[in-house]
Design a protein that fits this description.
By secondary structure, the protein is of the alpha/beta class. It is built from 30 helices and 31 strands. The relative contact order is 0.05.
């Protein structure tokens, strides 16, 4: 008797909704059975003449597993009623009614047949994962439905997603919800020792679970490195010797190894998996899930054009998915390597890939669809403009888009190949050079997991960087059947299979293990990575500058070590100031000029050399940010001026020789600027002068190119030139440089000592003066520094009358004995002001 699953309860409502309308959303939590039950239930709605049901799965393993499970339910072999199509492989026949496909397959199907002839319905399974391909596939299917196929049915199935926006996108599609897992799952929160090495913590948790619980164990770890390290610890602990099979499950594993991990076996087993096991897959016998709470994501750095792998805390939706794996076939338990508070702090959903990924494949597909502006399609999340712009730039460099972002004939040929646009371009260039065999090997090596093992006893510095040596390893393994040195046998098998499939796809003939020349290899790499040329920095051995302007350093050695020029095929953004080069090839400048001569620009560079204190000009040949050649150059005078102005601005005018007269003029005008805000006096503060250097100083800078020449510029005259005729005439009247005091002396005003001008004058020269002097038409009072006969300050005041009536008498008492030859009258009001000594008696 068929086991009842939660999804069975809503199947009548689902079929009714699909019969009544075009689009439906199905919410079914993990374990409900939506992947295998729903497509079979919908067969009755669509007779064979109406067309197939296509179901989109995010991963190859999930697609094949779902197809096999449904075929077994019908008692058939895969390829009859139920079939599948994944990259380079399909099991279909004329009788196939349900075709399970991976995401790239649907996109290529749409491009080759925009009407989706012979397709009655498209199902998007596990849509909550929000891959770029799923978002694109839904946008294109909705476009087909709107434009030409109003009879096309679309069903979106998801375990965790916010449905309101998705429903609006799908023309107000109804949302049908199913209950959760078949069986209860107990939660166990383990102590959160974050500082402890994760594989060690996880291995201990696995051993604890094996002792405490029954059934198989599914373990979630962020990546292959942690999985391998944990597996080694479990083997060392003797877990395998106790009759427990240990399986690894991650995307880069050979497909046969992935399937072995999910097939039922006689032994109890532990499956160490990445997020690949979160959805769609049913691993029979699993009763225990252990969740690290971590996942690894690829983030694309738009500034550098590099991808970087980041380990992040998983979302709550992801944690629920993982937990649900334990309750699919029986009651289970979920051990969490984190606490309740950590779980509560997790983000609700995993960010959509379209917001973080390299969008060049998406933009190329849109161009092939005839869409230049992505906003013309319906998206759950609009592709970010910065990502679109970066993708367009790369695709233009590859020759896939023209200057108006329309697809070229070359670009259309690239979309026919199941590869990233870079590698599609490489494969097409290989055909031009009659080197399709080498092109297929290179594309396979660059698209699959690296064939060289890393970690273990090999230090990072021993890691071999050279792509050419990888080709040699592959061909040696092909000829002898033995993996040389640090080559990984399983990875070699995968690369060999992909290479053969690319041979069939491109129609090329295999030449076996023929030798290849480095020039041809580099020509192919330059076609795919025109933006990844790297030049060694002067005086360095491992640090390079990439042609996109980003710095990078070598992660290992090999023939590429310390080479002057490289083509970089694998570089990690790293999240640091410099990227990390993992795979590259040595390049000659001659070949670079021959292959990418159209990208080499002639530039005149004029810069200020701070160390030498002068302008340095050169004529350069550049490939992106890389300088290939440079010769001295004498620039035109008009080119010098902006460079000199920039140098002055960077120095804060420190390169100018500014005299006291400059600062006094600056302060006088600023005082009037503040005192007469509506009279048009200019702002002469340093910030304003720096902003307007071109206006007031440019005529004095013509022809000057050294610090010595700048030091003799008459900056005061330049500044005075900023005043108009009226301001020049009234400047001395409103802000005089000197004041005549009662003694008849002409005393200099200091405008730079503070917010108001200062008059430093001997006390005796002001006898009888009641009011403190003012400037700016009486709006600004002068600050008096009253001096002793020796010129030392006795009093600072703006209230001269108060001084005479008050503190003068104390000053007189103290100073009279010290300076007896100078007048110290009892009544300063009636004493004549003087700068002389008392007359002799």
């Amino acid at each position: 008797m068929k086991q009842q699953l939660p999804i069975d309860q809503v199947l009548p409502e689902l079929t009714a909704a699909i019969t009544a309308g075009s689009n439906v959303i199905l919410h079914a939590p993990p374990g409900a059975g939506k992947t295998t039950r729903v497509p079979l239930a919908l067969l009755e709605l669509f007779p064979s003449e109406a067309g197939r049901i296509i179901m989109l799965e995010p991963r190859r393993l999930a697609a094949v597993s779902a197809a096999r499970w449904m075929a077994e339910t019908l008692g058939e072999e895969v390829g009859r009623t139920i079939g599948y199509s994944i990259r380079f492989e399909s099991r279909l026949s004329k009788d196939t009614r349900i075709e399970v496909v991976t995401e790239g397959i649907l996109t290529r199907r749409l491009q080759s047949d925009p009407l989706l002839a012979g397709v009655a319905m498209v199902i998007f399974d596990e849509f909550h994962e929000r891959s770029v391909h799923a978002d694109l596939g839904l946008a294109l299917c909705l476009d087909v439905q709107t434009q030409v196929r109003d009879d096309l049915r679309i069903l979106v199935m998801s375990a965790t997603l916010e449905y309101e926006q998705l429903s609006r996108l799908m023309k107000d599609a109804p949302v049908i919800s199913s209950s959760g897992t078949c069986f209860p799952v107990e939660d166990v929160y383990l102590d959160e020792h974050v500082a402890e090495y994760l594989p060690r913590r996880m291995a201990a948790a696995v051993q604890q679970a094996l002792k405490e619980r029954e059934g198989d164990v599914l373990v979630f770890l962020p990546g292959a490195g942690e999985i391998g390290a944990c597996a080694e610890r479990l083997v060392d602990a003797g877990v395998a010797e106790r009759g427990v099979a240990i399986h690894q499950l991650y995307g880069d594993l050979p497909f046969d190894s992935q399937q072995a991990a999910i097939r039922p076996g006689r032994q109890r087993k532990v499956v160490l998996a990445t997020s690949i096991a979160e959805t769609s897959l049913t691993i029979e016998g699993v009763r225990v899930v252990i969740d690290s709470g971590l996942s690894r994501r690829v983030r694309h750095d738009l500034a550098s054009g590099m991808n970087r792998m980041v380990t992040v805390r998983a979302s709550r939706a992801s944690a629920l998915q993982r937990r649900g794996r334990a309750g699919r076939l029986a009651p289970g338990v979920c051990y969490r390597l984190y606490g309740r508070h950590t779980y509560s702090a997790m983000t609700p959903h995993t960010p959509p890939e379209i917001l973080e990924a390299d969008l060049s494949p998406l933009v190329l597909e849109l161009a092939a669809w005839g869409i230049a502006d992505p906003a013309a399609l319906a998206w759950l999340d609009q592709p970010p403009e910065a990502g679109i712009a970066a993708a367009r730039t790369l695709l233009q460099q590859l020759g896939a888009l023209d200057e108006n972002f329309r697809i070229t004939a070359l670009g259309r040929s690239m979309t026919a190949l199941p590869l990233h646009p870079r590698l599609s371009r490489l494969l097409l260039r290989a055909g031009d050079l009659d080197s399709a065999d080498l092109g297929c090997d290179l594309a396979a090596l660059l698209s699959e997991r690296d064939i060289i093992r890393r970690g273990g006893r090999r230090s990072e510095r021993e890691y071999n960087l050279d792509i050419g040596e990888r080709v040699e390893m592959l061909r040696e393994w092909r000829a002898t059947g033995r993996a040389a040195g640090s080559a990984d046998n399983a990875a070699l098998k995968t690369v060999e299979r992909v290479s053969r499939q690319l041979q069939r796809t491109s129609g090329a003939s295999r030449t076996g293990c023929a030798k290849f020349d480095d020039d041809t290899l580099n020509r192919l790499l330059l076609a795919a990575y025109p933006d990844r040329i790297a030049r060694r920095r002067d005086g360095e051995t491992t640090r390079y500058l990439l042609s996109n302007g980003r710095g990078a350093c070598l992660a290992g050695q090999g023939r590429t070590a310390a080479a002057p020029l490289l083509i970089v095929t694998s570089v990690d953004g790293g999240g640091q100031a410099e990227g990390i080069i993992h795979v590259a090839s040595t390049l000659s400048e001659e070949l670079l000029r021959d292959e990418l001569g159209h990208r080499i620009e002639q530039r005149v560079t004029v810069v200020w050399d701070e160390r030498e204190g002068r302008i340095v000009a050169s004529r350069e040949e550049c490939c992106g940010a890389l300088r290939l050649a440079s010769v001295a150059h004498i620039p035109q005078p008009d080119i010098l001026l902006p460079v000199v102005v920039h140098a002055l601005r960077c120095s804060g005018m420190g390169l100018l020789s500014r005299s006291d007269s400059f600062y006094q003029l600056q302060a006088r005008v600023n005082l009037l600027h503040d005192a007469y805000p509506s009279d048009g006096w200019p702002d002469f503060c340093d910030a304003a002068l720096l902003d307007t250097l071109e206006e007031w100083l440019a005529p004095y800078l013509m022809g000057r190119r050294t610090a010595q020449q700048l030091a003799v510029v008459d900056s005061t005259a330049a500044l005075f030139g900023m005043l108009d005729y009226r301001q020049r005439q009234s400047l001395d009247q409103l802000a005089p440089t000197h004041l005549v005091v009662p003694s008849g002396s002409r005393i200099r005003l200091d405008y730079c000592s503070g917010d108001v001008p200062v008059l430093a004058v001997k006390l005796q020269e002001l006898f009888g003066l009641a009011e403190s002097p003012c400037v700016a038409g009486g709006r600004v009072g002068v600050l008096l520094h009253l001096l002793s006969p020796a010129g030392r300050p006795l009093q600072v005041t703006r209230d001269l009358k108060g001084f005479w009536d008050g503190s003068y008498h104390q000053v007189k008492k103290e100073m009279k004995g010290r300076y007896p030859k100078h007048p110290w009258p009892d009544d300063p009001w009636s004493a004549p002001p003087t700068r002389k000594l008392k007359p002799k008696v």
